[in-house]
Amino acid sequence: SRHEQGKACGMPQSEVSGKSTATAECEARAARRLSRRRREIFWRKGGAADFFYGTAVDICGKLGKTLAKKIFLSIVKMSGIIKRYSELFILLKREVFYMKIYSFFIDDNIFFLKDIASQRPNSIFDHFYLGNLKKLHEKYQVKFLLNLFKGDQNSGFMLDEFPDDYKAEFAANSDWLRMSFHAAFDKTHYFDAPKCIASTAAEFIRDYNFVKREVTRFAGSECFLFPQIVHYVDSSLEIKQFLYDEGVRFLADRRSLFEKLSEEKGSVVTSYPDRDVPQLTRIPFEMVINNVPLDEVIPQLDIRIVNEKRNYISIMTHEPQFYPYYWNLIPEHWDRLDRAFAHLSANGYTPVWGSLISTGDL
Fold it and tell me: pLDDT tens across 100-140, in order?
């Protein structure tokens, strides 16, 4: 309730009672991130400034410096409040412009669902894969996005065979564990990947809707999130337009491409408009952890953290390399994740949903 939110944030109860639910919730979320001194300033300003500050921090606070600044200055220009609330401007600049965030996703997921469907453990976290992800979340507050295949071609397992017995448990952990569409199968591609089976835009949309429907059935709608990447990275104009209509605004692309663009430009390139759908912004995934030796995890992250001073870092890995029965098992895979998350946390980076950067619901 709004009353409970007010108590939790330490704000005056009279400030809570007279405001709309939307305003109160927005302010409460912002106030939770403020120190006692900043809360005092926040509530003393009152009225429209409360709503402005809460909205700006909540929606813009983790977008990255360039976009946050653009949105913030647009609001200031329209409202003219900068002269009246200079102290809020200073706080907002500190809270918003220099926020450091990272996102993490895992591609090619299907094994954990196949195993749980056949083994039927009491809890989804009794399976080693989700159990270890939960331990990492509890240690570093990581948010995990698991990109799914609709089935496993080797065993014949399909998502519609997964039971809905664990729906409540998935939903209860949806604040840090969500799933998305990746592809029909491992060998499916949507553009031009070698040694793979081509798939049309119509087939992509069919497969996407299948995975979305099944995740909603067995885990709840709150557990499905639109993707941050497409299998084998690229796809057709029609597919990208469909993803844009679904809410996608940022799509990951290979780090090597950004290095090439940076070399051509003579400065670091961290994003660029998609060539087919310019409203989509392409951003790099900085590290594929299953390809990085344990001793190289920190040095490679430091290229982004120290040398390039990135506000936003996207890293990823793949599910199969965690499994003893997979031909390319990486015994130290979990250690690599732990080292990466520990280093990002030590350098002040906050984990977020990369797919939701453009919405502010991180």
Answer: 889 999 999 999 999 999 999 999 999 999 999 999 999 99
Secondary structure class of 153 (helix, strand, coil): coil
Phi-psi region of 81 (alpha: psi -120 to 50; beta: other; left: phi over 0): alpha
In angstroms, the CA 175 to CA 216 distance is 15
Calculated CA dihedral for residues 334, 152, 328, 235, nearest 10 degrees: -90
Strand partners, 178: 145
Burial of 73 (0-12, 13-18, 19+ CB in 10 A): exposed
Q: Identify the pLDDT of residue 255.
A: 64
Task: Give me the phi and psi of 151, to 5 degrees please.
Answer: -170, 175
Q: What is the predicted pLDDT for the residue at 185?
A: 55
DSSP 279-334: TSEEEEE-EEGGGS-GGGHHHHHHIIIIIS--SEEEEEEESGGG-TTSTT--TTHH
CB neighbourhood size of 18 (10 A): 8
Distance CA 136, CA 352 (A): 14
Residue 115 corresponds to which tokens in the numbers above?
């195993």
Distances (CA, A) of 212 to 181, 205, 259: 7, 10, 34
> Contact 321/328 with Cβ under 8 angstroms?
yes
pLDDT along the chain (362 residues), means of 10: 40 41 48 42 38 45 53 54 45 51 92 97 98 98 94 92 97 96 65 50 88 97 87 68 82 68 73 78 82 96 87 90 92 97 94 67 47
CA 122 to chain centre: 28
> Are 352 and 143 spatial neighbours (Cβ–Cβ below 8 Å)?
yes
